[in-house]
Amino acid sequence: MPDRYAVVGNPVGHSKSPEIHAAFARETGQEISYERILAPVDAFVSTLDAFRNSGAAGANVTLPFKVQAYQYAMHRTPRSVAAGAANTLRFDHTAAGVQISADNTDGVGLVRDICLNLGRAITDQRVLILGAGGAARSVIGALLDERPASISISNRTVSRAHDLANRFKLIVPDARVDVVESRQLIAHEYDVVINATAASLNESLPLIPTSAFAETCLAYDMMYGISPTPFLLLAANSGAVTSDGLGMLVEQAAEAFYCWRGIRPATSPVIAAMRRQAHIADRNGAT
């Protein structure tokens, strides 16, 4: 029987993870099965227990359960500790019982997409992160590993931005992480601007002036979809290079696959295939 994996979340029907991991398995010759599991918002642990006890080998965890997934594990990687959340769980079944390990692959997925797929450096760059929630927290550690000139956090609730900045200053004492209020952004320029807010989910725009995009700036939206988000449209009209988060999605999945299988799949063919599928779906929807 192939090893069983799943993505657990609520909602979860939209997840592309089964298609991505199926593509990785074909490429690497690994025999796995991968499914979607909808967990009730008040029954994540019991849902995961049932899946784990069925002999499953691991799980990806998406919203709103990443903090609970972190707490569920016995062993945690340093990057999951930095984030205080996990999107990848591995179940090692032994004679002594099941060992549960937690990882967070979001940050490395973002960095690999920016640096490898988009060919943009983060080292010595001025980075702005819009948002101070779980998405931002999951990627700051990996961004700091690239040694940017600075990381600035801007959030509607300024106290949350300060809490997040202070968290990483404790983890990385020499980290150049600061907070900039939305009204102050007009006085600053950034080389990389990352939208880690949920604004794109409801087609709204995060608070950012066009002057914040430096010349040749990369504007990156961690969300992905068929059409550009309002954030990406604003950035493009300001002259920035833009990218959505599809590459990050595939790259973080590849890192999870490596955590489970010990093999790192090629990601470029999968990203290209998903782009083609999105364009086909867009054309079919327009006819």
Stretches where pLDDT is under 50 for at least 5 consecutive residues are: none
Round the Cα radius of gyration to an integer and report it.
19 Å
- The outline comes out as globular
SSE arrangement, N to C = EHEHEHEHEEHEHEHEEEHEHH
Category from helices, strands and their pairing: alpha/beta
Number of distinct beta strands: 12
Side-by-side strand order of the widest sheet = 2-1-3-5-6-4
Strand content: 15-25%
Overall average residue pLDDT: 94
The termini sit apart by 43 Å
Figure out the total of helices. 10
Please estimate the helix content.
40-55%
Largest sheet: 6 strands, mixed
Note down, in words, how this protein is organized.
- The protein has 287 residues and is of the alpha/beta class.
- Helices cover 40% and strands 23% of the residues.
- It has 10 helices and 12 strands.
- The strands form 2 sheets. It has a 6-stranded mixed sheet with strand order 2-1-3-5-6-4, sandwiched between helices.
- β11, α8 and β12 form a beta-alpha-beta unit.
- The chain starts with a strand and ends with a helix.
- 43% of the residues are buried.
Question: What is the topology?
Answer:
Elements: E1 3-9, H1 17-28, E2 32-38, H2 44-53, E3 58-61, H3 66-72, E4 75-76, H4 78-83, E5 88-94, E6 97-103, H5 106-117, E7 126-130, H6 134-145, E8 150-154, H7 158-171, E9 177-179, E10 190-195, E11 213-221, H8 230-237, E12 241-243, H9 246-261, H10 268-286
Parallel strand pairs: 1-2, 1-3, 4-6, 7-8, 7-10, 8-9, 10-11, 11-12
Antiparallel strand pairs: 3-5, 5-6
How would you briefly describe this protein structure?
With 287 residues, this protein is of the alpha/beta class. The protein has 10 helices and 12 strands.
